Amino acid sequence: MKTRIALLALTVALAGCGQREALKPAAGQSLPQKPATAAVQPTVPQLLTPNVDTRPRRTDDLLTRSEERPDDRFDLPPPG
Length: 80
What we know:
- The protein is mainly alpha-helical.
- The chain has two helices and no strands.
- The longest helix has 14 residues, at 2-15.
- The mean pLDDT is 79.
- Residues 26-80 are annotated as: Disordered.
């Protein structure tokens, strides 16, 4: 019982540690250099947001329904 209470208290304490301010560079530091192909320096939210190439989505599904696969003559058991 005491373990559960301690675990619950630790969980609540960790949940309260979330950062609520916007991210910005540390004092004396600057953002990374502007990419050579970029027209303007990207902002912090732009740098933290993944682009489409980073997280591609699957647009085609190879199997649309359950089908029995044809025999594969190259699907051989391991030698030995």
